């Protein structure tokens, strides 16, 4: 059943119309509930979403109504089905009585509109609609078999009306003209603008929403065009009937004038006959009784003819008054239909404008989607390239790891083979370094002994300028040198803090520190 509601037969316009009315009812009920909850107060008659809800409900109740022929043409009113609620549910008797007692309601349409408003205020509209829909045998008297109230869409709408029980409404119907209101659905209230969000992650959803709105607007456009054509045909038919009634009224006026002239002529003839009979009776009192009887008979006939003419005149005058009343009602109906036609044309123009805007948005969204797809393809190419590069790097990394493992293995083998020899050589180098240090120390002592005659000259640089410069003692070899030769500092094994050493000790200590593993 749900699949049937979502995908009706495209060749059945009645099914499509039922589905569209059900969707409009869903939108109007949802919008009314959301706006009423956001408003947070009791609704009145001037609230636009509430007015549109009543218009949509009126269209749903009118769908598939059987026509009743009257003097003014075919009449469709949903007041008859609503009166059934009083018989099926005694609680609805109060609403029906209140509707009948309202003084300003003159038509069944106005009474039906008032009943809907009172049922909403009573928060029983959903229960009453379910009660009516469950009685298909009674509804068949008022609706066609394929009407919305006879199908599953009516039950869906009745279920949706349960949500309206959370709404508080206070509607004053005194002084409100419910008979002559034009019920036209304002479709622009239910169209959404998708331009409020521009996030890239919602691009596909926006495109889908825009396409759905475009299809919806095209469907509404088609239905509005059909409604405009139907109203135009009705206006043309009303104009033809108006012309025909005008001609009949003119013929009736001519007939009344001719009858009035004939009545005057009969009156004159009757008065002439009476006057002649009186003169004859005066002139010849002994006239023949037969002539008098014939004159009386002729007088009766003329009198009866006069009465018949007067009755026909009264009938013609009544028909004239009835035609004038019909003409006025037809003119009023034509004005209402013309206003509705103008409003529908205005909504059609708005729908066309919205359709054009949605087409532009759709084209721009398609261009954006195409651009995004190009960017995605380029990113995919870059991803593939990076994947190939990563594979190459992984292969190179595995190769380097294999080479490292081989080098570690060779180093391990080398250490196993030459480790003892390297340690013995390092010990020999350390012994030779100590011997060289001691030897160098002995040489310096010999030089200092040899140069005791001139102790003020630096024994390392032997510059004549060192005579005037102050001397310092090397903390490593205990030799005395000038400041230029004692400019370096290093931490000694006997001292953690840096100490002044000569250039020769500085070089030896650096080599010693560099060669030692610690």
- Number of β-strand runs: 6
Strand arrangement, major sheet: 1-2
So how many helices? 12
Residue windows where pLDDT falls under 50 for at least 5 positions: 1-7, 193-201, 449-455
Mean pLDDT: 78
Question: What is the class of the largest domain in the CATH system?
Answer: Mainly Alpha
Instruction: Please provide the ordered H/E string of secondary-structure elements.
Output: HHHEEHHHHHHHHEEEEH
**Major beta sheet summary:** 2 strands, antiparallel
Cα(first) to Cα(last) distance is: 89 Å
What's the CATH architecture name of the largest domain? Up-down Bundle
**Residue fraction in strands:** under 5%
Given helix and strand content, the structural type is mainly alpha
Overall morphology: rod-shaped
Estimated radius of gyration: 58 Å
What is the number of domains? Answer: 3
Quaternary assembly: single chain
Helix content: 55-70%
**CATH H-level name of the largest domain... which superfamily?**
RUN domain
Main location: membrane
GO cellular component, one term: endomembrane system
Protein name: Protein RUFY3-like
Domain FYVE-type: 452-510
Helix and strand topology:
Blueprint: H1 2-6, H2 13-39, H3 48-62, E1 68-70, E2 73-75, H4 79-88, H5 93-101, H6 108-122, H7 125-133, H8 136-139, H9 152-160, H10 203-283, H11 289-450, E3 471-473, E4 480-482, E5 488-492, E6 495-501, H12 503-515
Antiparallel strand pairs: 1-2, 3-4, 5-6
């Amino acid at each position: 059943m749900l699949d049937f509601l979502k995908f009706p037969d495209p060749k059945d316009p009645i099914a499509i119309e039922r589905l569209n009315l059900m969707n409009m009812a869903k939108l109007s009920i949802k919008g009314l509930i959301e706006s009423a909850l956001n408003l947070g107060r009791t609704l009145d008659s001037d609230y636009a979403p509430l007015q549109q809800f009543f218009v949509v409900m009126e269209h749903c109740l009118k769908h598939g109504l059987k026509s009743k022929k009257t003097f003014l043409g075919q009449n469709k009113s949903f007041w008859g089905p609503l009166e059934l609620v009083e018989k099926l549910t005694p609680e609805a008797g109060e609403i029906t009585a209140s509707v009948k007692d309202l003084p300003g309601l003159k038509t069944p349409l106005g009474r039906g509109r008032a009943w809907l408003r009172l049922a909403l205020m009573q928060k029983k509209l959903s229960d009453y609609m379910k009660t009516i829909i469950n009685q298909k045998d009674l509804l068949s008297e008022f609706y066609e078999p394929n009407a919305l109230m006879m199908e599953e869409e009516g039950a869906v709408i009745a279920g949706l009306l349960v949500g309206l029980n959370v709404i508080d409404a206070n509607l004053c119907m005194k002084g409100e003209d419910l008979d002559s209101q034009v019920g036209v659905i304002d479709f622009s209230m239910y169209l959404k603008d998708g331009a409020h969000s521009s996030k890239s992650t919602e691009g596909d959803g926006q495109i889908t929403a825009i396409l759905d709105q475009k299809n919806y607007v095209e469907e509404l456009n088609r239905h509005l065009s059909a409604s405009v054509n139907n109203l135009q045909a009705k206006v043309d038919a009303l104009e033809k009937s108006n012309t025909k009634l005008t001609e009949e009224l003119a013929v009736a006026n001519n007939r009344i004038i001719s009858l009035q002239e004939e009545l005057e002529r009969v009156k004159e003839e009757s008065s002439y006959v009476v006057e002649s009979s009186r003169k004859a009776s005066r002139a010849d009192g002994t006239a023949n009784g037969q002539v008098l009887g014939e004159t009386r008979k002729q007088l009766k006939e003329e009198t009866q003819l006069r009465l018949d003419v007067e009755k026909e005149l009264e009938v013609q005058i009544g028909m004239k008054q009835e035609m004038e009343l019909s003409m006025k009602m037809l003119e009023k109906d034509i004005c209402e239909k013309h206003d509705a036609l103008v409003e529908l044309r205005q909504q059609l123009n708005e729908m066309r404008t919205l359709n054009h805007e949605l087409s532009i948005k759709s084209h721009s969204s398609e261009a954006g989607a195409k651009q995004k797809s190009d960017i995605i393809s380029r990113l995919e190419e870059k991803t593939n390239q990076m994947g190939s590069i990563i594979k190459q790097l992984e292969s190179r990394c595995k190769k380097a790891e294999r080479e490292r493992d081989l080098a570690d293995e060779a180093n391990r083998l080398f250490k196993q083979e030459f480790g003892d020899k390297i340690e013995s050589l390092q010990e020999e180098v350390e012994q030779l370094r100590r011997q060289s240090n001691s030897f160098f120390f002995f040489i310096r002592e010999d030089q200092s002994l040899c140069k005791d005659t001139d102790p003020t000259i630096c024994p390392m640089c032997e510059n004549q300028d060192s005579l005037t410069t102050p001397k310092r003692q090397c903390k490593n070899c205990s030799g005395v040198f000038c400041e230029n030769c004692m400019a370096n500092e290093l931490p000694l094994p006997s001292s953690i803090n840096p100490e002044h050493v000569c250039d020769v000790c500085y070089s030896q200590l650096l080599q010693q520190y560099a060669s030692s593993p610690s």
